[in-house]
Amino acid sequence: MSGPLPVGAALEVESLSVRVRGRALVDDATWSAPAGRLTALVGPNGAGKSSMLRAIAGVVPERAERTGRVLLGGERLDALPPRERARRVALVEQLADGAPQLTAREAVRLGRTPHHRMLGFSLGDDRHVAAALDAAGAMALAERPLAELSGGELQRVHLARALAQQSGGEPGLLLLDEPTNHLDVAWQLELLELVRRLALDRPVVMTVHDLALAATHADRVVLVDRGRVVASGAPSDVLTPERIRAVYGVDAEIDARPGGVAIRYRRMAS
């Protein structure tokens, strides 16, 4: 079994490809996400953002052909057994759900499943669950059923479950698929503030549709199109009018100010 990850372990994706029946969902993707930074994966619908997150987490379609390497702190995640990998990497999917009758605490406790060969929990698990609820700002929700929670509250619970999943509380890799989807503006900002705090000692990667949101809140941006990485780096270097035009097929005017980035779009002249 591998030892604890060093604080500051970076994610490195090297020549990652996922193909199903000859069609590339992810195509020779190479990029990195440092610890202590929030990295945003952006791209059009169907660009392969979610497929890339799932491949990093070791979740690929049945009969898919997967090549390339994924490393965390220099350790090959793709070579680890599934249970061990699940202790290193937590994925919160866009359609994350849970049994509505469960309380938030019970849902978060399920994140400890990779740490046991048989279904069951320990007092040590309860400590990890409490710490995860606290880190996600969800302790006040602990005894409430999931069915009673708002979208923003549910996202906090899903984040807490992901944190509880990671081994012994050591920071691992946190992957978030569209965490701001279906949230109003206030909840989006609150969630992004939380995610930035979680990124202080680990790499956090999120997919996001809103380019202005990525440009304002992410430290690094990876632009994806048709499964391939078009560019990666600082938001201002990656999200240029020229690249937005080439990838999204629209003209864009970018207004970057200290308080945030606004992007205005218009159809390309025919």
UniProtKB/TrEMBL annotation:
Keywords: ATP-binding, Nucleotide-binding, Translocase, Transport. The keyword Nucleotide-binding applies. Signal peptide: none annotated. The keyword ATP-binding applies. CDD domains: ABC_Iron-Siderophores_B12_Hemin. Pfam families: ABC_tran (PF00005). GO terms for molecular function: ATP binding; ATP hydrolysis activity. Residues 11-251 form the ABC transporter domain. PANTHER family: HEMIN IMPORT ATP-BINDING PROTEIN HMUV. This is ABC transporter domain-containing protein. It comes from Agrococcus pavilionensis RW1. The lineage of its organism: Bacteria, Bacillati, Actinomycetota, Actinomycetes, Micrococcales.
